[in-house]
Design goal:
This protein has 19 helices and twelve strands. Helix 9 packs across helix 16 and helix 16 packs antiparallel against helix 18. The chain has 595 residues and is α+β, with helices and mostly antiparallel strands.
């Protein structure tokens, strides 16, 4: 029976027929791998996701974590699933052999983890955060910090978090007030409150490794005065055993609309809930140098952003597959023009408007997943390509695409789940139907790891103009290479895309011509939406190229989804580009009292 989590056939197409991940084994880093090892990891992930993660997804939602004032309680199935996940070695699979990893290509690892995100986005949140935390410490931590914290995380004994936001600051990191006071022996005492901390407290692991942005006393204001600290829930003794409880404690849990199984907390640091014997303050350990905290944190944030985009695509994908199965088996009504009320009803997939919704959801889900996996190949190339220039170009292109990889699936994967509810009709809007939960779970993704609007400002205000627009130039050139290589049968697609990608470059230049950031960024969200659709149209042209000349329902489906995207979706960017070039400043000029 086919899974309704993800399509194995589509993942095989994306990985092997389009991205050709087998060629990654030509890089020395991945030379010990082969398609056989890739398939083994993918099959393991699919089976484990179905068996250990999917089976408690509904229960995790209905019986969400609760806090009794001292302890956070979570259903036992979550811990059992995470233990099984850790035993597979998937936490460290993409990491260096030197730390116990398998040096699995990130593209394959991303596809493996997508199974868990589709099966249970909340439970998969704990290892996602832990892997990002460990990768940051591997990149910027000291050997002692790696030994003390990373090795237990890779074994599944410790889990990790990222602690940025504060109740008064939200996404405005320049306004963080959490303090770090040197205590004279190389440690710091941390005082402050952090809000919206996913995985912030639980009993699922022996310890929780918090990465905390704080300002050392006397540091300059703004983000350039932030430093990054390891603040463990329990102190760790020199022999690796757990010591005393650190002074970090949850003030309570935030009760979310969806994504409920991942605890979300406000954490108090240094407020005396667990007062250390040698004085007040949560004990923290500086990572790297003072005042470089945000630069270090971006290592984890960018990884998390790609993870969020993949999770949003995965949730959209499972919503689409469940709606497709329902549409094929649910009889209702008769074809238009058939007036015999005694004729058998037909499955709703026979109705044109249901096909419209399914094809739209397919284009969003499969397009978003393909985008995420393409980003992972750029990461692989930026790490493992022997050519210095190729590595640099891959990193620069990934930097430009990261806001889109996070934001486009977060918006359109959610739209796929919205359509899945609509296809189910009234049943889809009830708690007895899986797609109702998929929508609620997916609704978080346009918010966390940077809201949609923030990523619009990041894309237009930083990424496309960095290094004189070098990253945008790489993107435009890559799209034009695809256009040039497409067969004549795809001319209608290539002509449309060529016009829009050239206009993207023109609009970008026009927005910055006057050098006024406020005016340029006034409609940054519109820019992100238009750029995202141009990029995903490119991804669909790439898939159509890979499917060209191949026959069968699967390939026909790829061509149909590409045609839908170019016919119904890509033309919408024209109005967005028109708005951007108009120089409209209504949003800057509007008096808030008018709202």
């Amino acid at each position: 029976m086919k899974s309704t989590l993800l399509s194995r056939r589509d993942l095989e197409f994306l990985l092997y027929e389009w991205l050709n991940v087998a060629a990654l084994t030509e890089y020395p880093r991945y030379a010990d791998h082969s398609r056989e090892t890739f398939d083994g990891m993918l099959e393991l992930s699919a089976a484990l996701a179905e068996r250990e993660f999917r089976t408690h997804n509904r229960k995790n939602d209905l019986q969400e974590p609760h806090f009794d004032g001292a302890t956070v309680h979570i259903i036992p199935e979550v811990g059992q699933a995470l233990t099984a996940f850790a035993q597979t070695g998937l936490i460290a699979a993409a990491m260096d052999e030197a730390v116990g990893g398998l040096q699995l290509p990130h593209t394959v690892h991303r596809a493996c983890f997508a199974w868990f995100q589709a099966a249970n986005i909340a439970t998969s949140g704990y290892p996602m955060l832990t892997m990002g935390n460990a990768n940051l410490l591997l990149a910027h931590g000291s050997p002692e910090q790696v030994r003390t914290y990373v090795e237990p995380m890779l074994a599944g004994r410790f889990f990790g978090t990222m602690c940025l936001s504060e109740p008064h600051a939200g996404s405005s990191l320049a306004d963080l007030t959490t303090r770090a006071v040197p205590d004279g022996d190389g440690r710091y005492r941390i005082f402050g409150r952090k809000m919206w901390i996913s995985g912030g407290d639980h009993e699922l692991s022996e310890n929780i490794v918090h990465l905390v942005l704080a300002r050392v006393e006397g540091a300059r204001p703004g983000v350039k005065g932030l430093s990054l600290f390891v603040v463990p829930k329990y102190l760790v003794n020199p022999d690796g055993s757990l010591g005393a409880r650190n002074d970090v404690a949850p003030a309570g849990l935030n009760h979310k609309m969806g994504f409920r199984g991942t605890t979300n907390t406000m954490l108090n640091f240094g407020e005396g809930a667990h007062l250390p014997e040698d004085g007040p303050g949560a004990i923290g350990y500086l990572i790297g140098a003072e005042n470089q905290g945000l630069a270090y944190m971006f290592h984890m944030m960018n990884e998390a952003r790609i993870g969020v985009g993949t999770g949003a695509a995965a949730l959209g994908y499972t919503g689409y597959l469940e709606a497709l199965e329902y549409a094929r088996t649910r009889p209702q009504g008769r074809p238009l023009g058939h007036k015999d009320p005694t004729a058998p009803q037909v499955p709703i997939v026979e109705h044109a408007d249901v096909r419209r919704m399914l094809l739209a959801a397919k284009s969003y889900a499969e397009g978003g997943m393909a985008l995420a996996l393409y980003a992972a190949t750029l990461l692989d190339r930026s790490i493992a390509d022997p050519d210095d220039a190729a590595r640099a170009d891959a990193a620069r292109l990934l930097d430009v695409l990261t806001p889109i990889v996070k934001s486009w699936p977060s918006q359109w994967g959610l739209a796929a789940d919205d359509l899945a509810i609509q296809i189910h009709g009234g049943a889809g809007y009830t708690r007895d139907c899986n797609v109702e939960q998929h929508y609620r779970d997916n609704r978080l993704n346009p918010i966390h790891e940077g809201t949609y609007g923030i990523h619009g400002q990041d894309l237009l205000g930083r990424k496309v103009i960095a290094d004189g627009g070098a990253g945008l130039g790489l993107l435009v050139a890559a799209i034009h290479r695809t256009i040039a290589a497409a067969p004549p049968e795809l001319d209608s697609h290539t002509e449309q895309l060529a016009t829009r990608v050239d206009r993207l470059a023109e609009v970008t230049a026009a927005l910055w011509r006057d050098g006024d950031p406020a005016a340029a960024l006034a409609n940054a969200t519109v820019y992100l939406a238009a750029a995202g659709h141009v990029v995903v149209a490119w991804i669909w042209l790439e898939q159509a190229r890979a499917a060209h000349g191949r026959t069968g329902p699967f390939y026909d489906g790829k061509r149909a989804a590409a045609r839908y995207f170019f016919t119904y979706e890509l033309p919408t960017v024209d109005a967005q580009f028109d708005l951007l070039t108009s120089g409209d400043t209504q949003l800057l000029d509007l008096d808030p009292d008018c709202l």
